[in-house]
Specification:
Blueprint: H1 7-20, E1 25-29, E2 35-37, E3 40-41, H2 48-54, E4 62-66, E5 71-75, H3 80-86, H4 95-99, E6 103-106, H5 110-118, E7 123-126, H6 132-147, E8 158-161, H7 163-171, H8 175-205, E9 210-212, H9 213-226, E10 231-232, E11 237-240, E12 255-257, E13 261-266, E14 268-270, E15 273-274, E16 277-282, H10 289-307, H11 317-333, H12 338-341, H13 344-349, E17 383-386, E18 392-395, E19 406-409, E20 412-414, E21 429-431, E22 434-438, E23 443-445, H14 454-463
Parallel strand pairs: 1-7, 5-6, 7-8
Antiparallel strand pairs: 1-4, 2-3, 4-5, 9-12, 10-14, 11-13, 13-16, 14-15, 17-18, 19-22, 20-21, 22-23
Helix pairs in contact: 5-6, 8-9, 8-14, 10-11
The structure holds glycine (GLY) and manganese (II) ion (2 copies).
One manganese (II) ion (MN) is lined by residues 276, 363, 408, 410, 433.
Length: 467
């Protein structure tokens, strides 16, 4: 069997990167299985970096990458009895042909294989802080080697963090990865549209209806799975009314009623890649004037963030652009009192805007919903900036965007009841989130398969049965 690209190519790039940094052996375990109770595990999900380098999704796998380019896989042995219960295993005999690794062993031999291979390398590379047990295992292998020092066996003299090397590779997506991410975003957009149509139909049939958050979540899951997505990429947020002001709210059993907004933050994982979309829509398909006023501010903030997302711009530029539009909107709508906080510059400098917008505007997206990748430009000199809370700080500048990076753009407004805040806005929570691929000239929003303009959402919810 031909090893499927692009995995051998990625392993070769990793070997070269280690060689350029002084050489060594990389140890990359997949994710551990997590027991739930006596005879059941939590659903198994591979480690993202392990899968990025192997395409192999069985548990108990280990990949070793040498700076020479040689690769070793450790995996579960074939076992006819266990395979009756758990399904087929690849096994070490078939792994080199199937995965393109140089050699493979039964994972039971891990201690002997590691001690033998580490003796031939100047450094051991692993992702620091990945699993507490990993460092203990590495310490054990190094100790075994040191015990053999008097017989002339060498031991790596340094331990290096593999995390930044892998993160940088994963941050720049290739064409195949982007194609999968487009499909994931398309499925998720369809799920959001389905949820809108579902609510529109329910409230058309009965304006007094209540729809439970879990009913809407079920529509999302149905759409994910029927298009082949393996699971949600993160716990779905389906927040009725005031629940939208709880940033990490999980879909529960609260009723959604006509006149309220519904905020859905949900995306599927497809073939190991995440999507991450938020839409906020009126339960009965008609924004109230107060809801629409704030919605238009958030939408304009997202457009400003998208305009600031292009090669050469910095990751944080999108946040600054969104904060400016949101803050101006807070002043124009009366959410913030000009007589108290001053103009937009003053409200940004004092961080007064954080009463209604308290999170960042985006994160890397890829195999994980909050994907790996350094957010700062570590090679540049530090400069005076504002930190994540808006306070002045001396820190490295934000990272410069390059084609092939993927970020989310997710501004919002969250209005908790408070003295001095106009009552008509109380309990409104709005977020709009799309997934943006940085292109050669700007960015492409790959999650726009679901409407985002207020009138288009209203039209979909009104005419959904025909769309
Ligand atoms: N859904 C997680 C996030 O938006 O960051
Ligand atoms: Mn997000
Ligand atoms: Mn999200």
């Amino acid at each position: 069997m031909q090893p499927s690209l692009p995995y051998p190519h990625r392993r070769a790039r990793l070997a070269q990167a280690m060689l350029d940094a002084g050489g060594g052996l990389a140890i990359i375990p997949t994710a551990p299985e997590r027991p739930r109770n006596a005879d059941n595990d939590h659903p198994y999900r591979h480690d993202s970096s392990f899968h990025y380098l192997t395409g192999f999704d069985e548990p108990q796998g280990w990949l070793l990458v040498s700076d020479s380019g040689e690769t070793t896989l450790l995996c579960r042995p074939k076992d006819p009895t266990r395979e009756i219960w758990d399904g087929k295993r690849l096994g070490p005999a078939d792994a080199p042909a199937a995965l393109g690794v140089t050699r493979a062993f039964d994972v039971a031999e891990i201690d002997a294989v590691l001690v033998e291979q580490l003796a031939r390398h100047p450094a051991v590379w692993s992702t620091f802080g990945l699993h507490p047990a990993l460092q203990a295992q590495i310490d054990g292998w190094l100790a075994a080697l040191r015990d053999q020092a008097r017989s002339g066996v060498a031991c790596p003299g340094t331990q290096r963090d593999l995390g930044p090397l892998l993160a940088d590779m994963r941050l720049h997506k290739d064409a195949g990865e982007l194609a999968t991410m487009r499909r994931a975003a398309h499925i998720s957009a369809g799920a959001h549209a389905r949820a809108m149509r579902f609510c529109g139909a329910r409230f058309r049939a009965d304006p007094q209806a209540t729809v439970r958050e879990y009913e809407i979540e079920a529509e999302l899951l149905h759409e994910f799975r029927r298009h082949g997505a393996q699971s949600p990429a993160y716990p779905s947020i389906v927040a009725a009314g005031a629940n939208a002001c709880v940033l990490h709210y999980a879909a529960a059993d609260a009723p959604l009623r006509a006149g309220e907004l519904c905020l859905i933050d949900a995306g599927c994982e497809l073939d190991g890649y995440a999507s991450d979309i938020t839409r906020t829509f009126p339960a009965d398909g008609r924004f109230t004037p107060a809801q629409r006023e704030l919605y238009e501010i958030v939408l304009a903030a997202q457009q400003a963030a998208a305009d600031a997302t292009r090669p050469g711009a910095r990751h944080r530029d999108a946040h600054h652009a969104a904060v400016r539009v949101l803050t101006q909107g807070m002043l124009d709508s009366g959410l913030l009192d000009r007589d108290v906080v001053g103009d937009a510059d003053a409200a940004i400098a004092s961080t007064a805007y954080r009463q209604f917008y308290m999170h960042g505007t985006g994160h890397w997206l890829g195999r994980d919903v909050h994907d790996v990748g350094e957010y700062l430009s570590l090679a540049e000199a530090p400069s005076e900036q504002v930190d994540a809370t808006g306070r002045p700080a001396v820190m490295k500048p934000s990272r410069v965007l390059e084609p092939g990076m993927v970020v989310t753009l997710e501004p919002g407004l969250y209005v908790r009841p408070a003295l001095g805040v106009p009552e008509r806005f109380w309990n409104i929570g709005i977020r709009i989130e799309d997934d943006a691929v940085v292109t050669d000239t700007g960015c492409e929003l790959i999650s726009r398969g679901v409407p985002v303009a207020a009138r288009e959402i209203e039209a979909l919810m009104r005419d959904g049965d025909r769309s």
